[in-house]
């Protein structure tokens, strides 16, 4: 049995994204401690019900504040010295960087970094001095931190290649590719497709998710197929690449799409849809796509890192180039006019979710890649 500390940048993600991993660790007989910014009561209750201790820390998910980040680092080091874990697992950029460095300072025997995506620092968005500065800083911090990690896990081969080409990984670093965080295929159960073309995008309101392209393609598709409907779900975001709010306001005013805000449970939105769309510029493995696939939706996404792994073009969905509005509109039109194709691709999506992205299987692959023995699975 090992004592494991899981470090997150958002407390709710311990349940929403890493719940199956935590449960798999517990099923394998390990002791689990969670560390993240302050949690809400449902998250604390979920952890307490499984005897997982929770340590709150001060961590700002976005922004570069040396004093804030130094405080986060020392809080993590103190937590590790108190808990004395055998292994630290950290995911998302700041937990990976500061968690790995703090674990090395605290002499934690094994340190596993999970790269869930490259985010604002690496995404090919609007060039700016700020983006370049963040990119340079992130590369330096990643290189320093990952040189002290025993295992580095990626969610797609493109991200691994990007780190290798940037010289971030030390020579001989032990790396592995895992299928994201997986999806609970029982919770996200298949639901019959809506009979009419209903397009859904679930994403934080940042430009790099391709929301502007979705809106523009929706305008074209609505002209061609007036019976089509377009829906957007997701929270506003403080990310420097946040979507220009005027684009969304104009689309709502013009009746192009319906904006539902952030939803605690996205299943009703997926159930009401017949096609899922994610025109993102880059992902680790897009969780929203996996959820839509598990519920039997055909997927339109970009031929971009992380996204292309979830779709076999022409089988369970369609791939389009990044930022290609006309090609995106053509793909949306193709599915809008062909209900039989939507059904066929939706069934293929469900099959892929079961065979490649089942949460318990992905969790055990992560445990194995971090050098632990996973529990047997049914």
TrEMBL record:
Keyword tags: Transferase
**Source organism's superkingdom?**
Bacteria
Q: Which CDD domains match?
A: GT4_CapM-like (cd03808)
> Where does the UniProt annotation place the signal sequence?
none
Supply the Pfam families for this chain: Glyco_trans_1_4 (PF13692), Glyco_trans_4_4 (PF13579)
Looking at the record, the residues that make up the Glycosyltransferase subfamily 4-like N-terminal domain are 21-168
The terms under GO molecular function for this entry are:
glycosyltransferase activity
Q: What is this protein called?
A: Glycosyltransferase involved in cell wall bisynthesis
């Amino acid at each position: 049995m090992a004592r494991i500390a899981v470090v997150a940048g958002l407390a709710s993600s311990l349940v929403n994204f890493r719940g199956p991993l935590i449960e798999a660790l517990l099923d394998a007989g390990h002791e689990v401690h969670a560390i993240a910014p302050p949690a809400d009561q449902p998250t604390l209750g979920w952890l307490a019900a499984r005897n997982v201790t929770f340590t709150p820390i001060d961590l700002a998910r976005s922004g570069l504040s040396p004093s804030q980040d130094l405080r986060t680092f020392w809080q993590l080091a103190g937590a590790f010295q108190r808990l004395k874990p055998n292994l630290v697992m950290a995911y998302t950029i700041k937990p990976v960087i500061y968690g790995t460095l703090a674990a090395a300072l605290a002499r934690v025997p094994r340190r596993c970094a999970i790269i869930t995506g490259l985010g604002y620092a690496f995404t090919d968005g609007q060039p700016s001095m700020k983006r370049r500065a963040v990119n340079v800083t992130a590369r330096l911090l990643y290189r320093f931190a990952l040189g002290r990690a025993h295992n580095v896990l990626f969610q797609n081969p493109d991200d691994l290649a990007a780190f290798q080409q940037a010289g971030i990984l030390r020579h001989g670093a032990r790396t592995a590719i895992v299928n994201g965080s997986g999806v609970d295929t029982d919770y996200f159960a298949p639901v019959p497709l809506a009979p009419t073309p209903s397009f859904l995008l679930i994403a934080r309101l940042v430009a790099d998710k391709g929301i502007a392209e979705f809106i523009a393609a929706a305008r074209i598709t609505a002209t061609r197929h007036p019976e089509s409907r377009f829906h957007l779900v997701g929270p506003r975001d403080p990310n420097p690449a946040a979507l220009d709010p005027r684009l969304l306001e104009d689309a709502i005013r013009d009746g192009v799409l319906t904006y539902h805000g952030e939803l605690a449970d996205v299943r009703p939105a997926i159930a009401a849809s017949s096609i899922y769309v994610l025109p993102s510029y880059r992902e680790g493995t897009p969780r929203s796509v996996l959820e839509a696939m598990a519920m039997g939706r055909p997927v339109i996404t970009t031929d971009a890192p992380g996204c292309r792994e979830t779709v076999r073009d022409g089988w369970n969905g369609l791939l389009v180039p990044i930022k290609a509005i006309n090609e995106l509109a053509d793909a949306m039109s193709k599915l809008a006019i062909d209900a039989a194709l939507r059904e066929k691709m939706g069934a293929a999506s469900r099959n892929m979710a079961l065979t490649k992205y089942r949460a318990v299987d992905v969790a055990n692959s992560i445990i194995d890649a971090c050098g632990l023995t996973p529990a047997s699975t049914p």
